[in-house]
Amino acid sequence: xxxxxxxxxxxxxxxxxxxxxxxxxxxxxxxxxxxxxxxxxxxxxxxxxxxxxxxxxxxxxxxxxxxxxxxxxxxxxxxxxxxxxxxxxxxxxxxxxxxxxxxxxxxxxxxxxxxxxxxxxxxxxxxxxxxxxxxxxxxxxxxxxxxxxxxxxxxxxxxxxxxxxxxxxxxxxxxxxxxxxxxxxxxxxxxxxxxxxxxxxxxxxxxxxxxxxxxxxxxxxxxxxxxxxxxxxxxxxxxxxxxxxxxxxxxxxxxxxxxxxxxxxxxxxxxxx
Length: 273
Known about the structure:
Elements: H1 3-7, H2 13-32, E1 36-41, H3 43-55, E2 61-64, E3 73-77, H4 80-88, H5 92-97, E4 100-106, H6 117-126, E5 134-140, E6 143-149, H7 153-159, E7 170-174, E8 185-193, H8 198-205, H9 210-218, E9 222-224, E10 227-228, E11 241-244, E12 248-258, E13 264-272
Antiparallel strand pairs: 1-3, 2-3, 4-6, 4-7, 5-6, 8-13, 9-10, 9-11, 11-12, 12-13
């Protein structure tokens, strides 16, 4: 299957651009015998990348985000011979970790517990950094660990302290092996819905009317498994990850039971930032 045939399978322009970049990197890794690396990919982009790798039967690759449960990951594409050599000598992980660094922000006592994920991310964005250059942001009460591409390290270390919110903070770099993984906090909810239609579930989760829920969906603020959905009638499945921009992220759990009136009592886990 050639490049144009693969690109025809994608309707969104941003998806086509991503696929084209991945195909170009695969070709370069194969022909130039050099390792190729993408920016950080979100869950939806990772799914696209995996599909492309399967279509071209490229196995010398790995996704890595700094720790096992990472959401945002970089894709590493290896030349075949080098990949085999690294595997045999147990050097693959060490080489990958060199391409990723951690910036730690330690807050002063008067700011502890006051900053959320959004505060750290928006601060980085103010410095002109594109989102794809930044991996997961692990927030703690006393600060955060921010995964970044190695090429961004020096710039961020020099400029983060210029932001008002971080002027009193201690900012330093450390290796991936020193990262402080923060356990994911989940709040268990139970919702009562007639069916697992997207608009129905969104309405229930954000405590609003169906009409308002439909507006939120049409505004492209709702993602299912990291993919934007604009059809109200989309049926959710157990295990689906539902993101409502500005409202939070939820995981659809099991259907506990069906009431006498035919409604579904559904368990939902809300990610607590």
